[in-house]
Write a structure and sequence with these properties.
With 489 residues, the chain is of the alpha+beta class. It has helices at residues 68-80, 178-195, 234-253, 299-307, 313-324, 328-335, 338-348, 353-371, 382-393, 399-412, 416-422, 431-444, 446-454, 459-469, 476-487, and strands at 11-13, 16-29, 88-89, 92-95, 105-108, 118-123, 129-141, 145-147, 156-158, 165-171, 207-216, 226-231, 261-266, 271-277, 287-288, 295-296. The structure holds manganese (II) ion (MN).
Length: 489
Amino acid sequence: MSTQTKPTKLIKGATGDWEIVVGMEVHAQVTSKSKLFSGASTEFGGEPNSHVSLVDAAMPGMLPVINEECVRQAIRTGLGLKAKVNLKSVFDRKNYFYPDLPQGYQISQYKSPIVGEGVVVVDMPDGESIRIGIERLHLEQDAGKSVHDRHPSMSYVDLNRSGVALMEIVSKPDLRSADDAKAFLAKLRSILRYLGTCDGDMEKGSLRADVNVSVRKPGSPLGTRCEIKNVNSIRFVGEAIGVEARRQIEIIEDGGTIDQETRLFDPDKGETRSMRSKEEAHDYRYFPDPDLLPLEFDQAYVDALREHLPELPDDKKMRFVKEFALSVYDADVLVAERASADYFEAVAKGRDAKAAANWVINELFGRLNKVGKDITASPVSAAQLGAMLDLIGEGVISGKIAKDLFEIVWSEGGDPRAIVEQRGMKQVTDLGAIEKVVDEIVAKNPDKVADAKTNPKAIGWFVGQVMKASGGKANPQAVNDLLKTKLGL
Ligand code: MN
């Protein structure tokens, strides 16, 4: 991309401004019941070596057989990334030694990936919209896991993950800050979760990011990059880029040069450290896997998958802005998770959508965040919140009482309308009753009355007193109108 980097994204060094350049390689575990080339289960958390077929253990003479579901999911992901789907692709062997890689190679895709170039659009909180190019998406096998903490002198190998399908999604070096990278990964995760092609669970390792970082003076050619391997949270991606960019700038400003290498981020120490010098592609001796034919399908297959894609976050956001007259920011917050968007829609349909958005974003999300709960585990259902909005709309309860009602429904459940009835929470619109309270307060406070005549803002004090005396149940508008008359304002 040729667009200039915003000055706010540049970082200051001793010799002037520096620009950060970031590209990402994201490994996303494909959502499928069985592995890429075997029928073994992909389920998380099984007993060690309980989900391992002879293929996954690389027994001699075993042959891989492609799992169509994984192919389908990779194509759907490519379509969701607005990318070119390649009707013919090739599986290659990427040779290297790991104790938890019994084949001695990983089956991956090298020169001919299943998905080519695409794009992800990310809306930043400051209103800027950035377009991040996708270089490719290819299918490959995951390795097993070495376990070092079960025995004082030996390591164990667990092959449950061996052969699980991964999509490696490679971005172009279009990211220009830690915030760009975090927002890109969040958006990518959201798209994958909408598609149902990866659960995006970073704690379980379903989504891991390798982050390529380099720095340069604005307008200069690309600098030498370092790759930070296997960063497993969005926050850590941001932190790792920050410390790595600083490290590189210091070296260059001290007259040194950057060695291309693979590094690890240590979140406890807040530093990256060298893991190994960067290998080149030819070190892996890639060659087409002789056990597998090229992967081929026709355009009709792709078109049928495209036809059944769900509505994705960008489209949903545009629809929410149009259909519900929401701000882009509110719509963006609501569509990040499909379950949140569905919840909002159920509340907003046929109601004041702006009020619905406020309640969902401020009250509900706020409350859920506080207790670390997901929208799917919300104690207040969309039907209950909808009923509360109806009660406000009908003037049965005030906004203030509605917050009390929300707390009751949150902790005790129940039908909001019945609760309002049983607990006498209806707002008082009976003018006679309110007038009585107003008269009492006016009579008791002649000094405040005098004050209000010269300073009309002082009416707020009276409103507060009347609301308090009525236990918050007086209709605020009626109180205001009455007070204005009584005080002669
Ligand atoms: Mn990979």
